[in-house]
Amino acid sequence: MSFHVISCYMLRYIMLYILCCITLNTQAKKELSSGDNDGTPISSKDTTRWVLTIVCALISGLTTIVIVSASEKLVAWRTRTLAGWLTMSSNNDTEQSYALWYVFAAYCLVSLLLADAAATLCLYWPGVPEAVGSGIPEVKAYLNGIRVKKFNNPTLLVVKMVGSVLSVGSSMAVGMEGPLVMIGAYAGATLAQCSMGLSLLVLKMKVFKSWLKYGNKSTSGELSAKINCIDEEEDPILHWLWVKATGDLSYFANDAERRKLITIGAACGFAASFGAPIGGMLFIMDDISTFFDQDMFLRILVANTVGTFCLAYYRGNLSDYGAISFGSYKDDSGNSLHHRFLDIPFWIIIGISGGVLGEHSIDIVTDVMQRVLIRSTVCRPARFCLMISFLYCCDVRYSNSSTF
């Protein structure tokens, strides 16, 4: 391993260490000033907070594994099927040109069917119009104080996952960044909702046990007093659940903690898609959340690390921890290519050029959509999706004939 690679790793871990120290110091000062700490090193609320963070990261990581695995299997099936058709059709050398066009037609047909299935599922499935699009605008709106209906709808999660798999399998120029961000945010919202649900469940358990013991002859006030009489000696398990549900989990049912869990889930989804734990935190700070507390640094970093590790563990390679791959940096001999310090100016030039071209491209596409496509009856959403998919198939056919 060269010196500059070792320097990059050392700099990365030094930055993580500094961020962790700043976060822990800020959190300790906050607890001392507010008086929340009761003298113990770690309070029960902090423990519950970290447990919810890890669970949110695991849900995001496992969801990423499901989507990546399904997409890879779908693409492998399509490639294997088309390769078999090409082999059967090209046995005769005189029919080589015909065989290529036959496989191209099959390639277009499969891509159009998958793209149309994804568009139809997102557009016409009842009750989930929010499934259209990447999902990042909805997450950004919710975290900035705007109410988003059906944000934690289970049907929306299923439609989003299936639509993402079909879209990626159709070979269109789409990725999994937006859906994974929204799915991670959904995981955080679901955990916050489960906190309140568990509190109500334990309360009903205590009421039911008191009703069985004392009957229905007591008034509501007497029943509440008898519920409180169920102490630790009489029923330690129910007492422990009651303390945890009313003292810890119910604390996280408020809107502030809910937004924090959604922020952690969104960051974990972004980190899992690109394999960038620090990039997920910067994405949240720069683009998603307006209200970002300093005590969120360490939680987001740990959650992003857990989410990316889940995908790396699934693939069996700790160096392959991103859902989106940008290729391998190897030469013709198979040796890995390492970055050099002199490459940084070229990266800066590429970044500036990409930003300028991206801004103008967005303006052009927005203008064309508003003036031409939206007013045309031909370019309805489902039909427009089929048109884009067919044009992309033609581009793949004439730019790289070995795709089939």
Short summary of the structure?
The protein has 404 residues and is mainly α. Helix content is 72%, strand content 0%.
What is the alpha-carbon Rg in Å? 27 Å
Structural class, by secondary structure, is: mainly alpha
The coarse overall form would be: globular
CATH topology label of the domain at 48-326: Clc chloride channel
Give me the number of helical elements. 13
For CATH, the homologous superfamily of the domain at 48-326 is named as Clc chloride channel
Low-pLDDT regions: 1-7, 35-42
Descriptive account of the structure:
This protein has a domain at about 50-325: Clc chloride channel. By secondary structure, the chain is mainly alpha-helical. It is globular, with a radius of gyration of 27 Å. It has 13 helices and no strands. Helix content is about 70%, strand content about 0%.
